[in-house]
Amino acid sequence: RFRTIHHQSGSDPVQNPPTSQGLSTRRELYERDFPVYKQPVEVGCFSLDSGRRFFNDSRQMRYYVEPDRNPNFDLRDGYTDRFTKRDDSVKEKLDHILRWIVVNRSKLNSRSTTTSSCGLDVDFVTWRGHLTKLLTTPYETREGWSLAVTRFRDTLYISEVETEAARRERENRTERHEEMMYWGYKFEQYICADSLHSSPDPGGVVNTNEAFCTVVQTRLSDHRLLFSGEVDCRDKDSSASAPPASYVELKTSAEICTPKQRSNFHRFKLLKWWAQSFLPGVPRIVAGFRDHEGTVVSVETFHVSKISHLIKNEYNCWKPTVCMNFCSDFLSFVKCVAVEDNPSVVYLFCWEPRRDVTYTIHRDSHYSFLPHWFVQEMTN
Ligand code: A3P
Ligand code: MG
Ligand code: MG
User: Is the pTM of this model over 0.80?
Assistant: First the structure.
């Protein structure tokens, strides 16, 4: 699985030897039985308010209100006069999750009760979105990624580093692209109510700083995972089921008019949607299909557990088992490589399409991402 490769690296980082190990992303290597993936359990949640401030509670939870099947929602409404956009040049790294860990440490099992060791009882801490990128890697042909890894008290923390290409894209978005990014959030506003007994308010301001995040624990093969992900809303029916089974993911997509469009939707979009929701155990995706003017013309529910059946008739289609086995093998690779337990050491794993995953090692560099307050808190 880990092949010997010759990896290129810059001049400043400490290089691992030129014959170091790399990890292949070829799909054929991951077509094995589906690995163990334990039902994700929600161990907590947190909220980020309109100013991106952290709260250890569910104050930003929103409630799903079933829309008309053919609703005519105008997604352009409120752009830009009722829109507050999060500053995505600010890199928050794992800070909110680390804050959650510090406040809720007693809820997480401590590895040893008999010694003073206060390690977390998990192998990996990361964002759900980073894992989504790993799951889709064997099928990704356009965008690479960089993931910074630090081993601290025997837990591996994984935090994304924006690639040069991604930074250029972010800084050079067209006005059309900027507006289309708003459409997804506007759709959420048409569907979500702020409380159990209120209705959605499409006249309000869309503020993308606000977020409700679930924190879940699960296991992939022998990797114990703790990760957090944003949740769009939950079912109003409290008798329905406990989270994450009550959570609903909202999505928008271009209206499907031709067989080619349907095939592309299955092969590319459903892969990303499935990976994102499968990881935290969110069972339902409610999709709004919009025309080119940004009007939602139809709404459809996708059950995450049925998506893999839906796509089976597509030629050369993606397979959930390839996604999960690649992720599992990547995490094994990380465990082997990132051996030094040191909060200021970063192992930077990089991947570009059609290449192997490679890594470089960085000491006390600008890549270090565990804040002093976290290290200090966890060392007590
Ligand atoms: P859509 O999902 O309808 O495209 P999420 O679906 O993950 O809850 O994200 C909500 C919205 O944020 C998306 O709506 C999209 O508008 C925007 N968004 C999320 N990730 C994005 C990305 N990588 N690039 C651009 N926009 C993104
Ligand atoms: Mg969301
Ligand atoms: Mg969404």
Answer: yes
pLDDT tens per residue, range 191-229: 999 999 999 999 999 999 999 999 999 999 999 999 999
Tell me how far apart the alpha carbons of residues 156 and 342 are, in angstroms, rounded to a whole number.
Answer: 10
Q: Is the CB of 181 under 6 A from ligand 1?
A: yes
Which numbered atom of ligand 1 lies nearest the CA of 177?
A: 25
C-beta pairs of 186-190 under 8 Å, 24+ apart in sequence = 186/73, 186/75, 186/76, 186/77, 186/78, 186/79, 187/73, 187/75, 187/250, 187/252, 187/288, 187/290, 187/296, 188/62, 188/232, 188/233, 188/250, 190/67, 190/71, 190/73, 190/296
Q: 55-97: per-residue pLDDT in tens?
A: 999 999 999 999 999 999 999 999 999 999 999 999 999 999 9
ipTM score for this prediction: 0.97
- Which residue's CA lies nearest to atom 14 of ligand 1? 184
Round to whole Å and give the CA distance between 191 and 199.
9
Residue with CA closest to ligand 1 atom 18: 181
- What whole-number distance in Å separates Cα of residue 294 and Cα of residue 315? 30
pLDDT tens, residue by residue, 284-324: 999 999 999 999 999 999 999 999 999 989 999 999 999 99
Ligand 1 atom nearest residue 232's Cα: 8
232 lines ligand 1 (CB under 6 A): yes
CA of 220 to the centre of ligand 1 (A): 26
Place of tokens 């039985």: 33
H helix runs in 72-174, sequence order: 95-103, 128-136, 164-171
Candidates 220, 271, 163, 207; CA nearest to 62 is: 207
The closest residue, in CA terms, to atom 19 on ligand 1 is 181
Q: Which of 75, 84, 181, 271 to mutate to test the pocket of ligand 1 (most atoms within 8 A of CB)?
A: 181
